[in-house]
Structures are given as structure tokens and as C-alpha cells.
Design brief:
The chain contains twelve helices and seven strands. By secondary structure, it is of the alpha/beta class. The radius of gyration is 19 Å and the shape is globular. The protein binds guanosine-5'-triphosphate and magnesium ion.
Length: 257
């Protein structure tokens, strides 16, 4: 076994984090690679996979709501902060699997993991040198040029907060038409084309802000490639795997071991 890699799937609510966690593990298993799944969402109700390590074994959203008389949102915040109190147990539980890949499915609301301290703390505590963020953009919010910019802004904020290697993914690519997918890929590869698409949108304060945000994105050279992923036939998963390998092993494939 090589030193393990932690992949954190992060994105807005419903963007496809849990589905991708499941599909990535399935894809790896089909290729004889070793990966475990970790659920970090104490409020998760219907996960598409059975987590190997599950925060719900330590923290239950329902119990926190009942014990502290909190509503679901207040309890989610309390749970997010409690995540940090259980990192030692989580680390031991993960280590017991002696695996190569640890697929971390994060809580539904992105802000709980990205903007509160617990997310940053967990990454640091587990293995910051061997961690990568798989940031998921939801195509429902990224189909227009300014929608795409607002999604990029969240991705960049995540990068700014967590300060780890990061790959941008477009989930649910199977739900886009060929033209729509091509459009998003063009925007993701070419900031000038994205800028032109913004200029062609209806004039508004929103459009001006989009132009300003794009200028900042270009200035800091943070306009990275986006990898489309779909639910059918593991669309895009091999590219994602290759990209992660490139970050840590200079492209060396675990499958060749
Ligand atoms: N067509 C299609 N649907 C998808 C894909 N990925 C996820 N979905 C659907 O999108 C919905 C949300 O997916 P989840 O994987 O639960 O998303 P999530 O980000 O984990 O959601 P929360 O944890 O609740 O924020 C589900 O109905 C999935 O079946 C995909 O690649 N293609
Ligand atoms: Mg989920």
C-alpha cells in the first residue's frame, strides 16, 4: 500500500456529492483498487452507499435537535462544530481499513464544511499533505455564463478557505444537452470566451459584477479546467482518477502495482 489519498467531495446542496462518492468507489472496486467511503453528514438520511466510516455513529442530527431544542439548521451548525470533537475516533476508524483511497462525503450544505472551522480542522488533523478537494459544480446553476461565474466564485472561496489542491467537477453531465455541455467546457477552458458570453448577457448590475469577478479570476490565474461527470457508465470518472493521481504520484497508476 502507498500512502493513502483523501478526496473530499464538496459542493452545494444536492450537487451530487454522495452519488459521486458511491460511483467513484464502485469504479475503483471494479478495477481492483481499494477505496473506502466516509460519511461526514450527521443529517444524511438516504445515502446511495453504505459508508465504511459514518459520522452518524458518533453524532445524530435528530438527537442534537431533541437534546438542545434546536431546529434542523441550528442543529446542523451544532453538529458541524461537534465533528471536530470526533476527529480522533474518525482517524482511528479510517486507519483500521489500511486503504489507498478515502472518499469523504461532506455535509449537504457546503457552508457547514467550508466556512466553519471544523472542515479545515478535520483536513489538517487527518492528512493535509495527502488531501484533495473534488469541488462539484451543479449544472443547474452553471448553465448561463453569469451562473457559471457564481459557481466558480464558490469554488474559489472553497479553495481560499481550505487551501488544498482542488479539482473542479461538473456533475450530472448526462442532464445537459451536447450543446450545453460543450458550452460549459468552452467557458472552462477559455476565459476570453466566458468573458464574451458575459458581455452578451442582458445589461444589469449583475452582469457588471460578473465581469468584475471574472477579471479577478483571470488576474489570479485561478480559472482551472472542469471535469464533467455523469451518472451513466461512470462517465468522466477515469479522468477524475487520473487527475488525482497526477497530483500525488506524478501520474503513476495504482492499477499498475
Ligand atoms: N442524472 C443525474 N442525476 C444525478 C447525478 N448525480 C446525482 N444525481 C441526482 O441528484 C440528486 C442529489 O444527489 P446527491 O448525490 O444526493 O447530492 P448531494 O450533493 O450528496 O446532496 P446533499 O448531501 O443532500 O446536499 C439525486 O437525486 C441524485 O440521483 C448524475 O450524475 N446524473
Ligand atoms: Mg449527500
Amino acid at each position: 500500500m502507498k500512502e493513502e489519498i483523501f478526496v473530499y467531495f464538496i459542493g452545494t446542496a444536492g450537487s451530487g456529492k454522495s452519488t459521486l462518492t458511491y460511483n467513484f468507489q464502485q469504479w475503483m472496486n471494479h478495477r481492483g483498487l481499494d477505496a473506502i467511503t466516509v460519511n461526514l453528514d450527521p443529517g444524511a438520511e438516504n445515502l446511495p452507499y453504505k459508508p465504511d466510516v459514518d459520522i452518524r455513529d458518533w453524532i445524530s442530527l435528530k438527537e442534537i435537535m431533541d437534546s438542545y431544542g434546536l431546529g434542523p439548521n441550528g442543529a446542523q451548525i451544532a453538529c458541524a462544530d461537534m465533528l471536530a470533537l470526533n476527529t480522533d475516533d474518525i482517524k482511528k476508524s479510517i486507519a483500521s481499513f489500511k486503504t489507498d483511497y478515502i472518499l469523504m462525503d461532506t455535509p449537504g450544505q457546503l457552508e457547514l464544511f467550508v466556512f466553519r472551522e471544523a472542515g479545515k480542522y478535520i483536513i489538517k488533523f487527518l492528512n493535509p499533505e495527502r488531501s484533495i478537494i473534488a469541488y462539484i459544480l451543479d449544472p443547474a446553476l452553471a448553465k448561463t455564463a453569469s451562473g457559471f461565474i457564481s459557481q466558480l466564485l464558490l469554488s474559489i472561496s472553497t479553495n481560499f478557505r481550505l487551501n488544498q489542491s482542488q479539482i473542479n467537477i461538473l456533475s450530472k453531465a448526462d442532464m445537459l444537452s451536447d450543446n450545453e455541455l460543450q458550452q460549459v467546457e468552452i467557458w472552462s477552458n477559455d476565459p476570453d470566451k466566458l468573458g464574451n458570453a458575459i458581455i452578451n448577457e442582458e445589461a444589469s448590475a449583475y452582469r457588471e459584477m460578473s465581469e468584475g469577478i471574472l477579471r479577478i479570476i483571470n488576474e489570479f490565474d485561478i480559472h482551472g479546467k472542469i471535469f464533467p461527470i455523469g451518472n451513466e457508465n461512470f462517465q468522466g470518472i477515469e479522468d477524475l482518477y487520473t487527475q488525482i493521481q497526477l497530483q500525488f504520484e506524478g501520474g503513476e497508476d495504482l492499477m499498475s502495482d
